[in-house]
Every structure is written in C-alpha cells, then in structure tokens.
Design goal:
The protein is of the alpha+beta class. The chain folds into two domains: 86 residues, no CATH class; 209 residues, Porin (Beta Barrel), CATH 2.40.160.20. 24% of the residues lie in helices and 40% in strands. The chain contains nine helices and 13 strands. Helix 1 crosses helix 3 and helix 3 packs parallel to helix 5. The two termini are 58 Å apart.
C-alpha cells in the first residue's frame, strides 16, 4: 500500500516536471518543483519521501527563498527535510496514518460508582389500604356468643378500608427488614343480625327485608420480616417480603339486635375483641421520583389471621408515597 502511494506521488512529481517541459532526469529537484508539488496537493509525508529519494537536489535555502517557500505553502518540516537532504543526512520519513476520529460515547457507570450504587438507608411508606376479609361461621359465633354449629354455614365476607405504613432498613442493595403497621375499618352488616333498635325494626325481622345493624369493626396488624428488592430496572424497584406478627380485631354492634338463627336479643354495643397471629407474605412495585421520594404503585399481601382459633384468608392492597433517607 505504501509503495503504491509512493508510486502515485512520484508520478505526480514526474508529471509536474513534464508540465514545465523538463525531463525527469534533466536536472536536480529544486525548490520550485517542491512548490509545484505542494500546489498539486501532495501531503508533507509524501514530499519527504520525494526529497529523500530524488537523484539530485538543488535547493535555494537562503532566508529570502525560505520565506518565499513558506508563503507558497511549503511547511517548515518540509524545508527542514530539504536542508537535511542537502547535508546528506535526511532519513526516509515514516508515513503517518491520518488521525482516526472516535465518537465518544458515555460509558456505563462503574460497579463502584456512588451514584449507581447509592440506595436509601431507610424508607418510610405511608399510604391507603383496602382489605377483603373472610370470616367463617366459627368466628361469627364467637362474636355473638352462640354455639358454633348455628353459624357454621354462615360465612361473612366484607371490605375494610384504612391505612398502612412500613419502615424499611436496607442492609444492602437487595436485602432489608420491614416493620409494618396497618389499621383497617368498616361497618359490615351480617345477614344473621336484625335490628331491634325500634319496634318497627323488630317487626321487620319477620319480613324478607329486615333492617340490618352494622358491626363497627377495627382491625390492626403489627408485623415485621425480611424484604427482598431488585434494583436492576433503574427507577422501578420490585420487591417481596414475608411479614409475621400479631393482629387485633374489635367488633361493636351499633344498636340492639336480634340474632335470627336462634332468636336472641343482643344489647346495644355488644362487642368482642381478639388478638391472634398474623402472617402477610406479599410483593409490590416502587417508582423512584427523586433521591428523596418514591411512589408505591401497589403492594399486594395475602393476610392470614387466626382469630378465635380459626384461620381467616384475607387479601390486602396498599398504595402511597415512600420517603427515603440516608445513603449506603
């Protein structure tokens, strides 16, 4: 490739001489011919080869001639090559490859980059919560104080609404510990109660459309457990946890009532409460907004409780805001 390039340059040199009506061997290489090659677009490194390999040279390197060559576009390096050739010490200049333009692309953050590795030391989630509660006849019988067999076929499913909050300490990028508390509230109206708060309500118990009293229900949970997070998706952080702790439920009938399976009068504010084991495995998804704030798009938990020595299979859904503190 280099020989081919030199051949082209030397051919241009010969043609330039021929254009001036001079044979290639009719005289030495002069500064006028160098100027002609520069005007022809020959590169400086190729000029150095021509100067080094010319059979004879005759350069006028006086200050005036040197100044004239520089004004004509001959580089200072070429003039130095001409002077060295006249002294007989010029080396053949190496061909320099043209600079390669490289497009700079942003590199991915290094594994130890603090901005990539930074995770919040603590997070505090505050949000709303919804739970679907399933209570079997065994629990209902404990609440109203009648034998189990009467209510064994009368399951009670109802909705509760409230709040949920979780404090998380992140031990590393993927592991942390959750401390969760929630409060759920509602006023379900069970089908086995009929209002006796007035005579008309009491008579409605004999019809197909009785007036149902509500049970003011409060359910609180206090649980903790390990949390596992994945931070491979940028601002989106999925997580899963297994929480274990206690739950407390309280039910208060908001008016005097009649228990219809076995007609029994229950006075107003008849209430029952119970504390039991709670287990809540679940998962969720956080969206980071800034280094201080994230949004919990959803958290879904299977909430198992053991009120009155019976198992309740409940579901809970939460969403809200996550506040982030500190950096690891």
């Amino acid at each position: 490739m280099r020989l081919f390039r030199f051949t082209l340059v030397f051919s241009a040199f010969v043609l330039s001489i021929a254009a001036q009506g001079i044979q290639p061997r009719s005289g030495p290489l002069t500064d006028e011919r160098i100027i002609a090659l520069v005007h022809a677009g020959v590169r400086p490194d190729e000029l150095a080869r021509v100067i080094a390999m010319a059979p004879q040279v005759s350069f006028d390197l006086t200050p005036a001639a040197t100044d004239a060559m520089m004004k004509a576009g001959v580089s200072e390096d070429t003039i130095k090559q001409m002077a060295a050739r006249e002294e007989g010490t010029v080396p053949v200049a190496p061909v320099q490859s043209p600079p390669i333009s490289r497009q700079v692309t942003p590199s991915a953050p290094a594994a130890n980059d603090s901005s990539a590795e930074a995770i919040p030391r603590f997070t505090v989630f505050v949000g709303g919560s919804y739970a679907r509660i399933h209570a079997s006849g065994a629990e209902d019988s404990q609440v109203v104080g009648v034998p189990d067999f009467v209510l064994e076929q009368r399951n009670l499913n109802f909705n509760l609404y409230g709040w949920d909050t979780t404090v998380t300490e992140n031990v590393n990028r993927w592991f942390g510990v959750d401390f969760d508390a929630s409060g759920l509230y509602g006023m379900p109206q069970p089908s086995f109660l009929c209002s006796a708060s007035s005579i008309s309500n009491a008579f409605s118990c004999l019809t197909d459309s009785p007036v149902r009293p509500a049970i003011i229900t409060k359910l609180h949970t206090f649980t903790f457990g390990p949390r596992f997070s994945s931070r491979r998706f940028g601002r989106v952080v999925p997580f899963a946890h297994v929480l274990v702790g206690v739950a407390h439920i309280n039910g208060d009938i908001n008016g005097s009532s009649i228990f219809t399976p076995i007609p029994t009068l229950l006075p107003e504010h008849t209430s029952r409460s119970n504390t039991a084991l709670a287990v809540a495995p679940g998962a969720g998804l956080d969206l980071t907004v800034s280094h201080r704030i994230a949004i919990r798009l959803f958290e879904i938990d299977y909430l198992m409780t053991r009120f009155y020595n019976q198992r309740q299979d409940n579901g809970r859904v939460s969403a809200g805001i996550v506040f982030q503190f500190g950096r690891k």
